[in-house]
Design a protein that fits this description.
The protein is α/β, with parallel strands linked by helices and 339 residues long. It has helices at 5-12, 16-23, 31-44, 50-56, 73-88, 102-109, 129-133, 160-173, 191-206, 224-235, 249-261, 279-283, 295-312; strands spanning 62-67, 92-97, 119-122, 140-144, 154-158, 179-182, 243-246, 271-275, 289-293, 324-327, 329-332. The protein starts with a helix and ends in a 7-residue tail after the last strand.
Length: 339
């Protein structure tokens, strides 16, 4: 039989209201009383009825996570961290895949599958500041990624330009002066690609090297096949690159495959670096040098921001103002760039 608040109150010798205050984290309970209640909760192994609590508070205990593609390892790993952070709060997460299609992203903004959710963590590809400003749905919202900065809602991202500059500087420090890049996008909405290209260009300029567009062919998508195909084009140049910076790890893994199939040694003949630090790159041959975004921090901060909005929405005038948070990243040097 489930333990009730009344059972805990009887063991602790306090009122049911006092037990409720302790369970709900209210601060105005005297420390000795709180200690008695916490001992009783532990002794009886009390488990709160989260569904009932959410209903009393006018909430569902469900949040949504909307991402472009679930089979991309970066998003799969990020999803796990979002679920972990939500589970700590007793929340359930439903997942939406938008495929980066404008109509799907607009539908997500106006309500997830017509279900009632308490909040939405959303990584958009196409919708921008205007669509966010015109949004009718008042559900708590946090944006991820690089599509919108300084918009009307909370946003978490990493410094992509700085990270791309750092990995390019790493390749330059190894003595490479002819450095290719795989991942350039012609779509004006591809903000992540544009920022990473800007970081690459900045590093070259700081080193006094010209930007050569022949070394940066456009890339259709960000999958292994695209990396393999673009690497083949780079290796066919009269002067192929000495090193290649790929704008994500899947591109880098595809690029490595092409280089190895041509009989080249990595990194002796061509060095390869990626971005995202997915698990595959830690076990590839050779292991992959990459930029490692703090995916756990991204997820934790996003869920914390949702929590602030959800609680603030029941206290008029106290909803947190939109915030921009830049999560950490680090360069992880592995075998694909150093012997």
């Amino acid at each position: 039989m489930a333990v009730s608040l009344k059972d805990v109150a009887a063991l602790a010798g306090v009122s049911v209201k006092t037990v409720s205050n302790v369970v709900n984290g209210y601060t105005y309970v005297a420390p000795p009383t709180r200690e008695k209640v916490e001992r009783a909760l532990a002794e009886l192994d009390y488990r709160p009825n989260l569904s009932a609590r959410n209903l009393r508070q006018g909430r569902t205990g469900v949040i949504a996570l909307a991402l472009p593609e679930l089979d991309a390892p970066y998003f799969a790993e990020l999803t796990r961290f979002v679920i972990d952070a939500a589970t700590e709060r007793g929340w359930t997460v439903i997942i939406e895949q938008t495929d980066g299609r404008p109509e799907r992203e607009r539908q997500v903004l106006e309500g997830v599958r017509e279900q009632r959710v308490d909040g939405l963590v959303f990584s958009p590809i196409t919708v921008g500041r205007d669509e966010l400003a015109e949004r009718d749905d008042t559900t708590a919202l946090v944006l991820l990624g690089e599509r919108v900065f300084d918009g009307p809602t909370h946003h978490v991202a990493i410094d992509n330009q700085r990270a791309a500059k750092e990995v390019t500087e790493h390749l330059l420090s190894l003595g490479h002066t002819r450095i290719g890049a795989i991942g350039r996008q012609t779509n004006p909405n591809a903000n992540t690609a544009h920022l990473r290209l800007a970081g690459y260009k900045e590093a070259l300029a700081s080193a006094g090297l010209p930007y050569d567009e022949a070394l940066v062919p456009p890339t259709g998508s960000y999958h292994r096949r695209d990396g393999a195909e673009v690497m083949a084009r780079l290796l066919a140049l009269d002067e192929p690159p000495q090193a290649v910076f790929c704008f994500n790890d899947l591109l880098a893994l595809g690029a490595q495959r092409t280089a190895l199939a041509r009989g080249l040694r990595i990194p002796q003949d061509v060095a390869v670096a990626g971005f995202d630090d997915i698990e595959d790159g830690r076990y590839s041959t050779p292991t992959l040098t990459t930029v490692s975004p703090d995916k756990e921090q991204v997820a934790r901060v996003a869920v914390e921001m949702l929590e602030q909005q959800i609680h603030g929405s029941r206290r008029p005038g106290r909803r947190p103002l939109p915030r921009e948070v830049t999560a950490a990243h680090r360069l992880v040097v592995r075998e694909s760039t150093t012997d």
